[in-house]
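Human: My hope is that you can spare some time for a protein that puzzles me. I am handing you a single protein, as its sequence and its fold in token form. Could you go through the record with me and say what the backbone is doing? Take your time, and here it is.
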Amino acid sequence: MPADVKPGPTAAAGNFALERGEAVPALLGRHQDFLIVAGLGGTASDVGAVTGDAAHVYSLAGAMGAACMMGLGLALARPDKRVLVVTGDGELLMNVGALATVAVVDPVNLAILCVDNGHYGETGWQKSHTSLGVDLEQIAIGCGIKHTCTVAAARDIAAGARLLREGNGASFVCLRVKPTEPPAFKRNFDASLQRDRFRAALGGTMSPRG
């Protein structure tokens, strides 16, 4: 390797040690404080295990990479509400450019929580880029998001929870967890129901069904 080229970070820097079933609820705290957009698979289960089948949560299916941009649009449309996107490392890597757009627009009411286990849990537990040294917080910083942190140990959780609520501008929290199965949660995949009741939770004119 040339002398002027520094080696990149190692996988050991990932420090995927926290239990997601404990860390995610601790970070969310009072989930009713947010309108929540939950990403695919594991993160939707993480959220559902805390909130139940709640009207203020919109969970995605079959839209990998969309969570951050949906959250951004929601935050701009409802500046009176605190919007939380809960996504995973694999989904965020699918559309990592979303962080650049979030940084440029910088809505004060948007927070992103990335549950990073270093693996693609939905497709066979292949290692994601974050297991191989990619640091999503550093990407967020490079994009221009001013309020960021990585939660990799229990001592980091309180600061991460505060950042999700108090950022004066868009905030980003990377939560590093063990590559284990997410909590068991039976999702409701009725897209019309999800749409109608979430709109009702926003104060729209449509009423939830069922």
Remarks:
- The two ends are 62 Å apart (CA to CA).
- The chain has one domain: 11-200.
